Amino acid sequence: MAKIRTVFNCHECGYKTYKWAGYCPVCKGDTLVEEQVVPADKSPRLAGEGGELTLLEQIPSLEQERLLTGIKELDRVLGGGTVPGSVVLVGGDPGIGKSTLLLQAALGFVSSGLQVIYVTGEESLAQLKMRAARLGLNGQSLLVLADTEYSRIESKITEGRPQVVVIDSIQTVMKKELGGVPGSVIQLREVTASLVQLAKSKQITFFIIGHVTKEGVLAGPRILEHMVDCVLNFEGDRYQSFRILRAAKNRFGSTSELGIFTMEAEGLTEVQNPSALFLSERPAFSPGSAVVPVMEGSRPLLVEVQGLVSPSYSGGIPRRTATGLDINRASLLIAVLEKRVGLPLTSCDIFINVVGGVKIMEPAVDLAVALALASSYRDKPLKTRTMFVGEVGLTGEVRPVGRLAERLQEGLKMGYTCCILPRGNLRSQFFREQQAKNNLELVPVSSLAEALDLAME
Ligand code: TYD
Ligand code: MG
Predict the structure, then answer these.
(1) Is the pTM above the cut of 0.85?
(2) Residue 129: CB within 6 Å of ligand 1?
(3) Angle between helices 429-437 and 404-413 (to 10 degrees)
């Protein structure tokens, strides 16, 4: 009889070793779990194995009709609906609303006439029914299945001939023959590989739910990311109602789109006007707050940036934190404020926060961050109904930003009457048109120091 070999897998990063190591050398954590090695002939094949040489022009085009959930925010993040035969992994913390989102999506597919199977390994059918009732949606013809054994699930899928399948969740499905516990690295990898194969061979779209957990025996779905076509992360603060869906990987669309929802008693609701949501709690006339029109994917969004500058009493290195913003970018702006504007911030604790849980990567936010900090330092509010946009360079210059027209339009829609912006954007067509209309005051600046003079009341 063949000897059973074991392997030690890291359930965080997927690192593999045949020798017991005590801790994972990559994550430096106590994250190694012992598992049996799968015999080579039993391991599932990937889509790319055993192929023939083919001329590219002879391959039939994948450009086919996309399937729509009818949930606009989700369809947009998917790149305009989902492609038949693709596999989408939806990750997120437990309780964030993944099951709710995908049940809503499943019911959306059903109402457009598609055959959908929702496989639940986490909840009973009765619980699923209760959830559907709570969502108040008509799910008469949604097929549901409560099972956790892979081969049974596969045969039910083959039998049901669906166009879309939801697996809730990947951590609960297991292949009996592999042994171990559901959610172990080997189970996750093998089950996902088989699902990917099923998706490609039968042209079924799969939505696979995966929990992101740091502790416990459940493996993070990170190791699955390279196997699937699209990875969506569902984020948000469990204690607040809004949820943000973003694509971390998308073979069929952009990864810069955001989907914004709020969790209500009757399920997830799309946010039509995210700027209003992000600005709703904004205190009027308070120092340290600045509004900036940013571009999130194809869409402009007004967000509030808050800065707090206070003398540091710790005696050591002052604290610097940034939420929703790259800390290195924040440090650069603080240095520019010191050196080019002359604000003595060396011995101050500095906190920066982008309100609403969005993470902003684009440098167009620089001016707003710098002005929010200066406003907090001087304890004077910035001008009311004014937006600030511009990239700040190392010499304190304010550089032009792209897609200004869309940004300003969003501000106008939200009732803003003034915008301090880079002088380099003066040439823009929209700029001249707006000046002629006279409903939005545009104040061009060349440097951060100049902006600071004009930005306070
Ligand atoms: P759920 O979709 O079960 O999260 P996940 O699958 O990511 O673990 O939803 C979790 C929370 O959402 C739960 O605490 C209850 C809340 N919820 C609502 O507020 N409204 C609703 O209509 C539903 C279905 C859930
Ligand atoms: Mg769930």
Answers:
(1) no
(2) no
(3) 30
* 222-246 per-position pLDDT tens digit: 678 888 999 998 887 666 778 889 8
* Cα-to-centroid distance, 98 and ligand 2 (Å): 6
Give the length of the chain.
Answer: 457
Q: Is the CB of 100 under 6 A from ligand 1?
A: yes
- List, for residues 401-429, the tens digit of each pLDDT value: 999 988 988 888 888 889 999 999 877 66
Which CATH homologous superfamily contains domain 67-272?
P-loop containing nucleotide triphosphate hydrolases (3.40.50.300)
Whether residue 43 is predicted with pLDDT greater than 90 in this model: the reply is: no
Range with lowest mean pLDDT among 154-163, 167-176, 232-241, 311-320: 232-241
Task: Check residues 324 and 221 and name the one with the higher pLDDT.
Answer: 324
Percentage of the chain beyond pLDDT 70 is 89
- Contact status, residue 262 vs residue 208, Cβ threshold 8 Å: no
Between 15 and 196, the more confident residue is 196
Residue of minimum CA distance from atom 8 in ligand 1: 95
User: From ligand 2's centre to the CA of 263, what distance in Å?
Assistant: 14
Q: What pLDDT is recorded for position 24? A: 81
Residue 218 Cα to ligand 1 middle (Å) = 20
Q: Which atom of ligand 1 is nearest to the CA of 266?
A: 22
Residues sharing a CB contact under 8 Å with residue 246, sequence separation 6 or more, in sequence order: 77, 232, 233, 235, 255, 257, 258, 259
User: What is the distance in A from the centroid of ligand 2 to the CA of 356?
Assistant: 24
The CATH classification number of 277-455 equals 3.30.230.10
Best residue for ligand 1 mutational test, from 100, 137, 238, 264 (most atoms within 8 Å of Cβ): 100
Cβ–ligand 1 distance for 84 under 6 Å, the answer: no
Q: How far is CA 315 from CA 253, 311, 318, 346, in A?
A: 50, 10, 8, 12
Cross-strand partners of 308: 351
Where are the domains positioned within the chain?
5-37, 67-272, 277-455
pLDDT, position 23: 82
Ligand 1 atom 21: the closest Cα is on which residue?
267
Ligand 1 centre and the CA of 341: distance in Å?
Answer: 48
